[in-house]
Amino acid sequence: TDVKDPAAQQIVMFKERNPSPVGIITTSSGAPVERTEALNTLNSRLLNNEYFMETLTHLNRERIPERLVHAKAGGAFGYFEVTHDITNICKAKLFSKVGKRTPVAARFSPVIVERGGSDTSRDARGFSVRFYTEDGNFDIVGFNTPMYAYKDPRLFPTFVRAQKKNPATNLFDRNTFWDYLTLQPESLHMFLLVFGDRGIPDGYRHMPGFGIHSYQVENKHGDIHFVRFHFRPDAGIKTLRAKEALKIGAEDPDYNTRDLYRAIGNGNFPSWTVSIQILTLDDVKNADFDVFDVTNVIPLNEFPLHPVGKFVLNKNPVNYFAEVEQLAFSPANLVPGILGGPDKVFEARRLAYRDAQYYRLGANFNRIPINCPFRTNTFVYNRDGRPPVGDNEKDIPNYFPNTFNGPIPYIDKKRSNLIEIVEYEPNNFKQATDLYVNEMTSDERSRLVENILYNLAPATAVLQERAVKLFSLIHPDLGYQIEQGLRRNATISDVNNNYNDWH
Ligand code: HEM
């Protein structure tokens, strides 16, 4: 037999595995559907045709709200295997022993485009992973950049609205985008990467991932440390050049989703080396920058990576909606030993994801099979609500405390509490300068300028001027090149009309 592309030939391969029809059609209530009901609608009584009525009405109910952000994605499943012992700093069961495997889910997503948008848009990418541990689900809902855009959670709605479509025109709008970016210069650090090569990954399996927040972790004695999670793709980081990406996106908007499905379908399993940067409380106090500021990176030369394990994706979803669209990741999905970040963005996220998932999936989203913490027995006091409810906790008492042997809390006398921190105004020009000067090659710096120009040229003059000032603060050379580039552009007539395809 010839070699098939599993992404393009899924349905053909299905038939190869199922040489005859898999069964008799039924209505959703299980009645077998007769041949005439399924095939003859002309000159027959449609109202009596339960199969037809059900199909027609079900179709109208097949869309649920897409995610507010990160609507489009590829997802897959696999395992995490511990390669290095970190029990001295973290007691979480998933790290308990070298060689231990924990089932995982992953979802990779551009931030801004809608579900029908292009995988090759210039943007940061979401890097969401879930560990189905024996103590419940642990999610890292991260990015492909080691820093985030802002440290004040109040900016989330502004950040989203300025980048999503303009409500008047229903178009992506360079003015709203540059207005946001120049009013919130703390975001420039991350956007240097987005405008650089990192902004268009060539395949999700060539993309790094970062938890970004500094997570408080504790060992079995209750001693605390702070860690940042890093996922390095074993196949190396690959990115697309801007022109190449526009061409690919026009031909195949699902380029990255396809690449992931195809690779896994062909047995070419993507993997990442998972590492952590480790800080003590003293390190935190002595650092000359805010360790908990998500717009900062923690320098690797001061706090090197400690390998922890391998993250391997070896299974495609069998059904995308069931297993990927319904995934409900949350930074608040934590397990004993991992307390999350003490910063305000983390605190805001504890609410935002739950609320988003109530809205798009309903009150019982954690009862949806792909979200069930299936490695543990759950006992909750909540009942009822929009399905699915599973067994709805059967006949167990539904109020707490009670005298009748309903579930009781566990006791952990050595447990630490999440530390309290004081946060200050961000100042990331130092790290942005460092990124520009020390991390980017001169080739990447010139592509950065080109990409910024491509996107800044359609913005209105006052925003361009503000942007030039800010880029000059990162580095005079960067500001100068952008200013010169804008001047050159301005001499080319009607340049502004052709620049709307950034996303
Ligand atoms: C104030 C800060 C933030 C708020 C309020 C917020 C809110 C949200 C919301 C409402 C969603 C949609 C969730 C859903 O419908 O399931 C989402 C998705 C997502 N966010 Fe955030 N977010 C914030 C910051 C961040 C940060 C700092 C990161 C990265 C470290 C991040 C990464 C993601 C990712 C990867 C997804 C997609 C999750 C998935 O794959 O389903 N967000 N966010």
TrEMBL record:
The lineage of its organism: Eukaryota, Metazoa, Ecdysozoa, Arthropoda, Hexapoda. SUPFAM superfamilies: Heme-dependent catalase-like. GO terms for biological process: hydrogen peroxide catabolic process; response to hydrogen peroxide. Pfam families: Catalase, Catalase-rel. It comes from Euphydryas editha (Edith's checkerspot). Belongs to the catalase family. SMART domains: Catalase. This is Catalase core domain-containing protein. GO terms for cellular component: mitochondrion; peroxisome. Heme binds at Y353.
